[in-house]
Structure prediction request, 920 residues.
Amino acid sequence: MPPRAAPNRGGPRRARGGRTPFASEGRRGGAGRGSQLGANIPSTAAPNLVPTIGVRRPGFGTAGRPLMLEVNSFELKAEENNIAHYDAVTPDNLSGKRKFVLFQHLQNEYPDIFTPKLVYDGQKMAYSTQSINLGDQNARQFNVAFPRTGGGNAAGREPQVYGITLVKVATINTEVLRRFVDGKQAWDENISNALMAYNIAIRTEPNLQNPYRGRSFYIHADRQNIGGGLEVWRGIFQSVRPVIGRLVVNIDLSATTMYREGPLVRLINEFYGNSPDLPPLYMVPGHVRFPPQYAKVRLLRFLRNLRVSVCSTGEGRPRAINGLTTNGADAEFFDTREGARISVADYFNQIGLPLQYPSAICVVLGKDAKVPLEMCTVLRGQFANRDTHLGPNQVADVLKFATKKPVERMDAIKKGIQVTLQFGQSNYIAQFGLTITEQPMKVKARIIDPPNIRYSDTDFRLSIMLRFSRLDKKFKVPVTIQTWGIAIYESSRRFSAPILQEMITAFQRACARVGINIVNVEPVTRYITNPQGVIETQLRQLGVDCIKKYKTPPHLLLVVLPEGANEIYTAVKHCGDVTMGVATQCLIARKCTRAKDQYWANVMLKVNVKLGGINSISESGIMDYITDPANPAIVIGADVIHPPPHSQGRPSFTAVVGSVDSNAAKYVSTSHVQVGRREMIVDLKEMVKNVLEKYKDYRLHMEKKAAEHLNPKRLFFFRDGVSEGEFDQVLKQGQCPCIHYACEELGMSPKITLIVVGKRHHNQMFPSNNRENKNAPAGTVIDTDITHPLEFDFILQSHEGILGTSRPAHYSVLLDVRHYADAMQALSYALCHVYAPACRSVSIPAPVYYADGECARAKNRFQPGDQLGMSDTGTQASGGAVPDLEAYKRAYKPINIIQENRMYFVVSHLFVLPLPCSNW
Prediction:
């Protein structure tokens, strides 16, 4: 497929010394743009070119070995027609599924108006290929009866009536889609609406038959019990996307957790039986031992909004659980319509339904209906609450269920198209003139070369060889450990003194292999007999023991933990990151007992960088444009992590991580708190300034650079977690102006490149003729066929897949000074090789990985027990005041001054104690 933008230049130009440079001058996609980014972002289109949001594609890459792949995209052919767009105003108090069903009732009750039927998204938008008669105002309100089903007390009741208002808002000519994929039309609202109409059209039929959420629907026939009252269901994701020269349907597998259908009593028994930290529920006929209040709070959090049917009434309409009673059914009273006061248990005896468990509590349905547990049945196809916490065994079961090797995954996708989706059988798809092929697309990919990895000056090996070998090289800059200590939280019976000595010997041997020097080879050890005590006090006492023995605080503490010691681990992270000052490595007792050399090699990768060392550097022609002394560069990664769904008032955490050395191997981090669920980083300017100042300080004091080489000439900014719909906001309102102002205030003027790294997409690669059932090799890149029709993006699989089907990363270049496709792809791939805790390439560039890790650690910067509700699984206590943002900011502790310039964020197994040493 020829490029839709600027013509291919025949590959990157060659510079002196055989280098492949980035072009430092020139127009970005033809737009007149200098190296600076002003407050007002100019259009990216030159005269006579279609405007774009991000960078216009400069051409296609040519480097690397060609490879044919199958992808999970299926070509969609669409007849050009006009689509009528309607706003559907429905009652706010109905769920999306109820609205969806109600809309189908509407169309069934008025067949003379709704022929052919509209497609509806379950919220607000509806589309049709033919306009319907809504009167002179193109608007009409309909009253729709939602009849009750079932017998019993529900029979004879009046059906509920809801009002739905339809308003025609636009007519879309789908020619705009053809022009857009052909590169002749800029993105606008009409294109967005046309794509939305097609997406809703292909989802309507399966959504009518199956539970759905977002762009996936889930299949009852393909599910597995994972315990705790939950199941995992297989789903099918589908999305219409515009790519170069065509439309495609991206189809993938998904998985989600559902409540188990059936008796509510069974569900509750399974919930308690799966929670080792909760007392069991004991139920036999005639006798009940119900757990205490704190366990009931956990149960209510699990059950809230779960919909059940009540066998005593025969109502078909499900009712939601809103609460639990304090007393059992035999001690919970209510007033009847006749004015009598009666217990719930006696009432059910009177109507001929005596209870087996009269002393068990009841659920509260609706406003105040108290119904015994045994009278309730959980309905099929209900999604587990988004904040439901899964235990380790449940997580393992879900991952095992969701993991499929490439051939198995593609076969399941093809089967889903032929058996489940059956596109050709859908009247909705036919109405819109859509035809979807059943065979996956074949695309041309390339395997680009990895960078060379250098460890010590004498140890050099190609990265591609390192992927399959154990780490047996000395580090580029190994550290020296003066003194060290070991805190053991496992019992001496399970982790005995001989096992401890074996661990010490193995650790010493591993240090020697990678070049880490231990001055005092014997550590100070201490078994912690009271793991419920104050962790910080216990670790400080170990530090005091080191001072008594060696006259100096420890440089490193190893902490041996038992399985499931999450609370100890969290406390260790807090007191380490915030209040103390010695790097510490946490180890699981079971794993470090008689561990193999490779285990300790992985530990060394973490320990060395925590103490200020450098494991390895990436060496290749492309890295010269970061390491070039005349044109120094800084690489920055940024990310935001949001609170769990349904949590009230909790903040989001932001992180910015930047390189400070000349090889982009050493990074520093800064993290802030901001209002919850806001994707744009509010304090980005100050955070970038902080990183730039540390970059300049490191080059001055540690690398002894001359004054003229202290400021970066290039700035590569990798942003994680931004959706395509937010790209324009990133450029014009969010991130780019903040980066520019940060540089301007420090007197710096680097050329800025901004790249969004997407992980939550569904494009996957499947090697053709894959007899060995392997993933596409690391370094596989696609920038044709399934990429954006106009803008500079590419899909890169940078890691070797071991389990299941690897998911590549999607890179979208939003701001640039005209770098060529090959150069940008090679740079992104090279940065996937400098992630310190790994000796093989990872799935996203190291600065993005670090920023993600720093965000995940941020919640541990609060004092344990501060009542701010920062537990992973907790929500704000009912009845208590929700802290405001300023309260979170005041409680958010800064990183210890000694650790703030070290890579404490590379992994989560780290904490700190005070050390009399340089910040660097």
